[in-house]
Every structure is written in structure tokens, then in C-alpha cells.
């Protein structure tokens, strides 16, 4: 009797792990292991080429914090957080524009979402061609007489990072619009009607009633947006894979990537990665705690 | 007509007028924003029908449209080969993700086994913890199993995503327990129950995953650059990045290649947008 139960238990465990084994092996090797192994790798001089690997203590970390390039890259990644408030405000506005029961609204929603599903490479090719010195943006601005000389949107060290931020906003707006739209649609329409009957304007209802109710969404979206802003990589890699001009677009993850795959300094690259992760964790914890507090105050 | 009625009538007309004006303003705003979103794509498209030097021509419609860029890009990019690479990596990668995730999520949703809490906890924590040097370590892993410069080196590290497992587990949980019990009483094995009862039950979730996977794998460019050394093996997005860097004076070809790379994604998205958008907005509600 006891034996039968035990046998069944063992069999059940075996079947369960047999189902999971292929996926778990891949996740262990390519997801879990990299998270853990990043840290010891940061304490070595591994070059990817030389088979001899030495433990170098905190050398890579001290090299990073004493390097100007590292701090410039960190500064640019943190500056990218400027995208977060802009993208949140614009996407809430956009969501409220398309949240009407009028003909054609779903067309606009889908259209605004298309850049989100388009590859970063295609996006970068299109915008590179628009922002080029002899590109269409400059020709339009010169032709309508707004400027005399072309602006180097991507070539000017003072502008390039902001141009990349613009592209990030253009591509990401539809995504956050869709999330806020889900938020707006979860609010009960009676509340808005009541406010409008009481004589409040649509705008006032939006600011005073809807925005506070959307707070949990704003908090969640900002958190995601902060994490992806600090870990910005794709847009820079696609448009300016050397971080130029003159390091003006060098962001932390690109710096770490180049240290590994251009300079073959894998240990140093891993150390930079660990430091970047600490910055990301710190910033997202800040948003998490701050946002949670704000969200609770208003919803209880 | 008495005065009161007239006043009320005027007020209503005024209100309706105001409403009409605000609706028109809304559409004007939306159309302007739509131009900002669609304009770059339309301009790219119109460029591909332009020959040679007129790339920076500002008119949207060319007087002499030509398909020469689309014909030229076939040779220029070795398009048949590149499309084969892209399709292979996308299709095999998507299939593996669906199969492995559908298998792995089943016990997590429907069976009791030792270590269930630990397995689930580890899976969810990988979604939060950043892999500080994930790209570098994964490159070293692929090097260790000698899959550098092979399609499998591109496919295997991303062959199953934790996101897919968690999404499918959620879908399995929605299937009534009685169905599983009934199947077991009928004497079906676990594998048979999974195949005959569970898998058909989660088909809507699987079709959502197919769209997600298709789009992300078709668009992927970084990992293929890291793993593949021979540009002949590059998928479309990676090849475009590479060629745009090397031959940007061939802009007509690059533009045609870019249009070809975007079209499948837009078609899939348009066909399944309801499903896709529900999944995106569902993530925030859950």
C-alpha cells in the first residue's frame, strides 16, 4: 500500500521533470548561468582569446571608476532617463485622444503602434536618412526658410544624443499609448459622465479624475521606461555603433559591449556590466518605492 | 415661437456646434500625428521607386517610378540567401520556443512535484534580475559548445523564453480541472492528456506567442552579429545594418531591402493586431 503511493509519487515527479527538462536545461545554461557568472568574470582578466585566466581582484572595477570614458557613458545612460517623463506625458495624451468611440479610432491606434513592431535597424535606416546633413529634414527646413545652414542632427556632439532620444520616443510612444489605453478603458465611464453633468470640462475631468486613477499605470510604465532608458543600447548601436561623434552618444551598455567585442577585454566589460546593473537596480528601486508611495496615497 | 424655447434651442445648437468643432479638431490632431508616424515610412517607400540620384528629392511621388531598386537589391544583398537565413532562424526559433514552453509550463500549472516552488521562483526571478554581462557570458557559452558562426548558435540561447513559459502556465491554469481528471480516469497517460486536452485548450495563447516570437525573432539583429562571422549567414535586419554601414551610397537598394524587411512584420501585425494588443495590455492588468 505505502509502496504504491511512494511509487506513484516518484513516477509523478519523474514525469513532471521530463516535461520540463529541455526548457530548464536551456534556461539554466543561457539565462541563469549568465546572471551568476557575470560576477566572477568581472574579477578576471579574461580576454576571450588567451586561455590563461587570472584572478585580478578589484582591478577591473577600479580601472572603470578611474576612467573618464566610463563616467561619460554612465552620464549619457542616466541622461537618457529624460525620455521617461516625455514619453509618459505624450503617450497618456495620445491614449486619451484615441480613447473615443468615433469612427477610425482603431485605425489610428494601429498606425501609432507600427513603429513598435518595426525593427530598430529599419527605424535607424529611415531616421538616419532623414537626419543626415543633406537629408530631408534639413532640406525642408532650409526650403521653408527656417534656417540657412544644415544642422548636423547626428554629427554635432551637442545634439546627437537628443536626436537619439527623439527616435526612442517616436518608436516607443505607441507601446505606452496601448498600455495607458488599457488603463483608461478600465475606468468606469459613469464617473466621467457624473463629473461632466456637474459642469466640469473634459480637460478638467481628465486632470482631476482620470490621471489620479491612472496612477498605478503611470507607476508601472515609468518603472519599465526607466529600466529601458538606463539600459539603452539598440538605438545607439543601430545609429552610431562607435558612440560618436567624439563619445557624444557613448552609453554604458555600448561601452561595455565595445570593451568585450572590440577590445576583447571580457573581464573589464563584465565589471562595467555589474556597475551598470547596480545603477539600474538603484534607479528602479527608487522609482518603485517612490511610485508605490505616491500610488498608495491616492488610491486608498 | 416663445422666447424661452428659442433660447433653449439656441443653446442646444451651440452645444452641438461646439461638439462638432471639437470632433473636427480631434481628427485634425490625429491626422497630423499620423503623418509624423507614417510619414517616414511613406517617404522610404516612395524612395524605393526612385532611380539613382534623386533620393533626396522632396516630392513624395516620382514622375518615373521604377522597380530597379527592388531588382538590384536581389543581387546586391544576395536576397534569396538572406531571406532563407531569416526564415530559418525565425521559424525554427519560434517553433522551439512554443514546443519547449508548452512542455515546461504544463507541470508548473497542473502537476504536483517536488521543487515546484523553487523552479517557479527561479524562473520568475530571471525576469527581474539583470544579467550584468549576459551577452558576453552567452557568447562564451556558445563558443564553448562550438556553435560560433552557426545558425544554431543564434537559435539555441534564445530557444525558450521565460516569458512564454509564464504566459502558457497562466493559460493552462484557465482550463477546467475536471477535464484533466476525466482524461485520467479514462486511463490516458500524462503525455496523452497534455497532447489531447491541454494543448488544444491553450491554442489562443499559443497563437499570441507565435506573433510575439515571429516579430521579435524576425527583427533581431544584435545576437546574430555577435555569433555569425560570415555575412552570407546574416538574417535580414543584421544584413541591412552591415550593408548600410559599408555601402550607404547605395541607398536605393538599402531602402528597398528595408521595405522588404518591414512588410512581413506589418502584415503579421495587421492580421493579428487584436490578439497582439490584448496580450500587450493584458500584461499590465495581470
UniProtKB/TrEMBL annotation, chain A:
Which topology term describes how it sits in the membrane? Multi-pass membrane protein
Q: Which domain of life is it from?
A: Bacteria
- Residues annotated as transmembrane: 14-36, 78-98, 110-131, 151-170, 217-239, 266-290
Q: Where in the cell is it found?
A: Cell membrane
Record keywords: Chloroplast included? no
Instruction: Please provide the record's keywords in A-Z order.
Output: Cell membrane, Membrane, Transmembrane, Transmembrane helix, Transport
Q: What is this protein called?
A: ABC transporter permease protein
Lineage runs: Bacteria, Bacillati, Bacillota, Clostridia, Eubacteriales
UniProtKB/TrEMBL annotation, chain B:
Subcellular locations according to the entry: Cell membrane
Please list the GO biological process terms of this entry.
Answer: transmembrane transport
**Which keywords fit this entry according to its UniProt record?**
Cell membrane, Membrane, Sugar transport, Transmembrane, Transmembrane helix, Transport
The family database entries (CDD domains) matched by this protein are listed as: TM_PBP2
Q: Which domain of life is it from?
A: Bacteria
Q: Which InterPro entries match?
A: MetI-like (IPR000515), MetI-like_sf (IPR035906)
**Pfam families in the cross-refs:** BPD_transp_1 (PF00528)
Q: Write down the SUPFAM superfamilies for this protein, in alphabetical order.
A: MetI-like (SSF161098)
How does the UniProt record describe the way this protein sits in the membrane? Multi-pass membrane protein
ABC transmembrane type-1 domain span: 83-272
Question: Where do transmembrane segments lie in this chain?
Answer: 21-45, 82-106, 118-139, 151-172, 193-215, 251-272
Report the main location listed first in the record: membrane
What Gene Ontology cellular-component terms does the record carry?
A: plasma membrane
Q: Which family does it belong to?
A: Belongs to the binding-protein-dependent transport system permease family.
Protein name listed in UniProt: ABC-type sugar transport system, permease component
Q: What is the lineage of its organism?
A: Bacteria, Bacillati, Bacillota, Clostridia, Eubacteriales
